[in-house]
Amino acid sequence: MVTAVKCEDGKKRCKWCIATPEYMSYHDTEWGFPVHDDQRLFEKICLEGFQSGLSWRTILTKRENFRKAFKNFDFNKVSKFKESDVERLLKDEGIIRHRGKIEATINNAKMAKLIIKEYDSLANYFWSFKPKQKRKSTKDISTSEESIALSKDLKRRGWKFVGPTTMYAFMQAMGMVNDHAKSCYLRDLV
């Protein structure tokens, strides 16, 4: 069950965000806020892929390094990365140095351009997977019918590191699903 706790400023927040100052800031300014900008969506989906198997705090503390390494997640630029870029990134201590995840980001940049050709934007594509109904429960879950469908469709299109759990986290982060605790002050604001 997702719960909220009262914080020092008197506001109730999702309990998970009190673990670190980075989480609190992320919770209050980003998590669950609807995103429609293609470059920001590409960044979010890539960072969720890099997070797979790691803590989100690791990603947040390295996010600026990721932005620098991946040209602010401009998929037009990243799609042109070559093997020499992969080798350069594998030496970059400021990011997660995982060959598969680095290569997936480059691959996914190419695939993003194809989706844009078909849907006019990544936003149009991703938001087409928005759940038809709001979840009534705030029970902590890690996948949904929609995240499974999004994962399958992305994989069919050649994307990598886009499993159902990763896609559910992406859907939460981009504001497609509102999983703020019922008593969290942001629940009805996002």
What's the helix and strand layout?
Blueprint: E1 4-6, E2 12-14, H1 21-29, H2 38-51, H3 56-69, H4 75-78, H5 83-90, H6 99-119, H7 122-127, H8 145-156, H9 164-173
Antiparallel strand pairs: 1-2
Helix pairs in contact: 2-3, 2-6, 2-9, 8-9
CATH architecture assignment name: Orthogonal Bundle
Q: Order of helices and strands, N to C?
A: EEHHHHHHHHH
Please report the first level of CATH classification, the CATH class: Mainly Alpha
**Sheet with most strands: strand arrangement:** 1-2
Average pLDDT, rounded to a whole number, is 94
Rg, nearest Å = 17 Å
Structural class call reads: mainly alpha
Strand content: under 5%
The biggest sheet, with number of strands, parallel, antiparallel or mixed sense and barrel status, is: 2 strands, antiparallel
Q: Note poorly predicted spans.
A: none
**Distance, first to last CA:** 20 Å
**CATH topology tier name:** Endonuclease III, domain 1
Broad shape: globular
Number of structural domains: 1
Looking at this structure, what is the CATH superfamily? Hypothetical protein, domain 2
Helix run count: 9
**What is the oligomeric state here?**
single chain
Helix percent band: 40-55%
Number of strands: 2
Please provide a written account of the structure.
The protein is mostly helical. It has one domain: Hypothetical protein, domain 2 (Endonuclease III, domain 1), CATH 1.10.340.30. 52% of the residues lie in helices and 3% in strands. It contains 9 helices and 2 strands; from the N terminus they run E-E-H-H-H-H-H-H-H-H-H. The chain has helices at residues 21-29, 38-51, 56-69, 75-78, 83-90, 99-119, 122-127, 145-156, 164-173; strands spanning 4-6, 12-14. Strands 1-2 form a two-stranded antiparallel sheet. A hairpin with a 5-residue loop joins strand 1 and strand 2. Helix 2 crosses helix 3 (56-69). It starts with a strand and ends in a 17-residue tail after the last helix. Keywords: Metal-binding, Zinc. Zn(2+) binds at residues 14, 27, 180, 184. One of its GO terms (molecular function) is DNA-3-methyladenine glycosylase activity. One of its GO terms (biological process) is base-excision repair. InterPro entries: Adenine_glyco, DNA-3mA_glycosylase, DNA_glycosylase.
